Amino acid sequence: MMAPQQEVLVGVEESGAIPAVESSGGERDAPAVALRGLHRSFGSQIVLNGIDLTVGSGETLAVLGRSGTGKSVLLKVIIGLQKPDSGSIRIHGEEITRLDLDALNEIRKKMGFLFEHAALYDSLSVEQNVAFPLKRHTKMTASEQRDRVKELLAAVGMENDLKKMPSDLSGGMQKRVGLARALALEPGILLLDEPTAGLDPITSGEIDELILKLQEEHDMASIVVTHDLHSAKTIADRIALLHDGTVLIEGSFKELEKSDDEFVSEFLQRDS
Ligand SMILES: Nc1ncnc2c1ncn2[C@@H]1O[C@H](COP(=O)(O)OP(=O)(O)OP(=O)(O)O)[C@@H](O)[C@H]1O
Ligand SMILES: [Mg+2]
Predict the structure, then answer these.
(1) What number of other Cβ atoms are within 10 A of residue 170's Cβ?
(2) Is the CB of 8 under 6 A from ligand 1?
């Protein structure tokens, strides 16, 4: 059985990744992602209360914060799965908050997204899940697709599990397949929700290395939501700590460590 949340998310066909395409409206040297004054509430609950963040090409931003603080909501708002109540989201300079679905889908083609619970297609094998975006958005032949899928799965250490179904995988394995799918089309922007949660330390380290490699080789902009401070320290150029709906502090790990804000130092100590 697929969880209701996953069903909704998988309903968006672009849940994996889609090829990078140039869209009109963008600006050449604009940051990959620029968020200004983002607000999002659910009923009377204010979750995002004025988020400002910028991520440049080749840059990795780690987003930290307590459970329930709005990290997953933030990622979903960035790829347009949820609409913000107000505020601006610019992807390579193009404002996306007022776009219709077709135009939004074009922008989504630049982004790879790994959901918090991987959200694989239950009825498709590992191989078919990773091939899905290739089938849909490229002109690759079946044999080219097979080669690319093998390469992607090898990158996440899953090359021996091609024929397995998602229900036959552990949570960590599902994550890795989700990551391979998110990378299938070499997106310019990668959004990862807890990529190393549920993984053993060695596999976590391998995923971190993979993210670093992609950042260097493909100049990819990444936003990585994580509870894993060690991982944040390893992969991120900058860290943003969300608290009470806003970015409480933003900077390098060293800068955060120097903060005399009580919540910041408690957060860093508790999770390290
Ligand atoms: N579709 C929704 N409808 C109502 N409330 C929602 C919805 N999505 C998220 N929320 C609420 O928004 C808040 C933030 O949720 P979110 O999933 O972003 O937290 P999180 O920071 O990702 O937490 P975790 O670290 O546990 O994954 C929670 O209180 C959650 O219940
Ligand atoms: Mg979350």
Answers:
(1) 10
(2) no
For 2, 61, 205, the CA distances from 17, given in Å and listed in that order, are: 20, 19, 23
Tokens of 217: 């080789």
Name which of 148, 107, 90 is nearest 12 in CA terms.
Answer: 107
87 vs 269: CA distance, rounded Å:
33
Q: List C-alpha distances in Å: 83 to 54, 97, 189.
A: 19, 7, 19
Closest-CA residue, ligand 1 atom 30, reads: 68
| Ligand 1 closest atom vs CA 65 | 21
Averages of pLDDT over each 10 residues, the chain, 272 residues:
36 39 57 96 97 94 95 95 95 93 86 86 96 91 96 90 94 88 91 88 86 82 92 94 96 92 87 46
Against a cut of 0.90, is the pTM above it?
no
Tokens coding 253: 């790990």
CA of 69 to the centre of ligand 1 (A): 7
Amino acid at 238: R
Q: Does residue 70's CB lie within 6 angstroms of at least one atom of ligand 1?
A: yes
Residue nearest to atom 16 of ligand 1 (CA): 70
Give the C-alpha separation, 209 to 51, whole Å.
29
Give the strand order in the sheet containing 45-55.
45-55, 33-42, 86-91, 94-95
Q: Give bridge partners of residue 54 from the DSSP assignment.
A: 34
